[in-house]
Amino acid sequence: MRLPYGLNSLFSIQGPRSIYVYSLLIGLLSGFGAYGFNWALTWTESFTFGNLIGYDPGTPAGDLHFHSVENVGELSRLWILFLPAFGGLLVGLITSFFCPEAQGGGTDSLIHAFHFNEGKIRTKVPFYKAIATILTLGSGGSGGKEGPTAQIGAGFGSSLANYLGAGARARRTLMLAGTAGGLGAIFRAPLGGAITAVEMVYQEDIESDSLVPCILSSVTAYLTYTSIAGSGSIFSVQEYSLNDYRHIPLYIVLGLLCYVVGYFFVKVYHWVQDIFSKLPLPNFLKPAFGGLIVGCIALLVPEVLGSGFGLIQRMINGEVLTSTSFGFSGPFFLLAVAIFKVFSTSLTVGSGSSGGLLGPSFAIGGMLGAFVGTMANVLFPELNIIVFPFLLVGMGSFFAGVARAPIAGMIMVCDMIGSYALLPALMIVAMIAVVLSHKISIYRNQIKNRFLSPSHHWDMNQDIMDRIRIIDHFTEFRKYAMVSEHLSLTQLQSNAPGIQASDFILIGSNEEYKGIVSLRKNRILPEYEQELKNLITCGEIVQDVPPVCQSDTLGKALRILLEYDVDKLAIVEENRCLGYLRYIDLFNAYQNEVKNKNKQSKSV
Questions:
Q1: Which residues of 156-192 are buried (b: 16+ CB within 10 A; e: fewer)?
Q2: How far apart are alpha carbons 197 and 204 in whole angstroms?
Q3: Which string of DSSP letters, residue by residue, matches 85-108?
Q4: C-alpha angle 108/109/114, rounded to 5°?
Q5: What is the pTM of this model?
Q6: In this predicted model, what pLDDT tens digit does every residue of 107-118 receive, in sequence order?
Q7: Per residue in 208-255, pLDDT tens?
């Protein structure tokens, strides 16, 4: 459905200002959508947890407006075991017969839509996603509520773009703006929601073109949501600042722990996904089977049920978390909750039930932080450690590591507690987790950077790049960074500053091309230069990078540069290296081609 003829010119997207205006509208709709979803979810959880399961998971301060679990009955082992399976069965029926897109985490499908489907989301997806998530979390499944709220907002953005007849670029921007609105509202995080939306689509980049629309949408959704649900952050936290630098080594330990458990979480989650995709069961039964295993885990550790945000608030309030089943507490119980939460979340979401991964990541990281803080109190009582700062830092840092979103992890937690006092500690721990986790991500559809995303082919106009031959723009090539394969690595290192290069083209005695040596990837440390002097030659560490010939296109050359992570490419004719091209050479040729095309079109 699109605008009637005659209204296109009035309401169509004609530039950035139009995008900004529609981002405000999307934020307004996302705020109302997030409020309606959270109201339905909290009332469902109040009934199932209070009347059926008989377990109070706690309520974060920001959700007290809606409802909290009251009149908790006696703990029912039967409901704990079978309720997650029953909820999974209902979700399986919805996702199998009505809306397959409603299964899983939600965020990964948004990332896939951004990169590979021009930002298109079917209008019915947010509705079914909300119902499926209410059934999953309301029945005790381990997941987060950010998935449906993000998809509700993203659905508004995508549908509005379709209605306006917008192109793929504008549709992607409005989809991300809706995602930011949903996150900013449900987590009461106006800046965190925007940063998460633009950072989650890449592993090592951000979607900077959509930052302003995402901020506008997230702030609008936040104001809309809080105007109905009341102001304040999602967690109520007492004031705290990092003023005892003796705690810093403990935060470093927390960063290492976030990496180890995060790596484990990603591997287990992806393994569960793969196992359930091959499981010889009807698709509608798979979430029920996953829910049954979650119920078995919850018999031992009921604390894994739900999102875990209530437990976090209870611990922030100073409550000592005690095992519901066995009555013991202490640091190792907190670590056990984190590990069991890894399995329960992987089984809930990985089996096909509906729930986000961001919320459980916060809960797992919070438990790891509480473990470090509590253990430090046992080992070093003289430090007078307060546990809740470690809990909050663990939340943001764990998510930053598993989602490859360092800025989002830090800002989101600061917004959720209404304070930036913990930002220095967050920066330390999050950077450790992210740097160590550079090869893993909980989101399988993330792309490394903008250059590799199909959504940004318009940036480079790949069609033009693939039509331009190298010989059309270059008759001579640079040779400064060409070295012999017999040159020692230590000598190359000493010559590199004068040549001002880090990657070098390696040639043989007859100027035949051998490959590329990168000093960014191969370097002898100064303390070992004397011992290893002249022992390692460039030919022994050469990287096999395909060359191109003069008749090849700029598009082919660019793809090789990106794939092999080098900054120059050899030009070869009849096995003789003529020289090389750099990134900047390709870009200049592309710009010259575009300018020539524009001049020709104006002269016609």
A1: bbbbbbbebebeebbbbbbbbbbbbbbbbbbbbbbbb
A2: 14
A3: HHHHHHHHHHHHHT-GGGSB-SHH
A4: 100
A5: 0.77
A6: 888 898 888 888
A7: 889 999 999 999 999 999 999 998 899 988 888 777 888 999 999 999
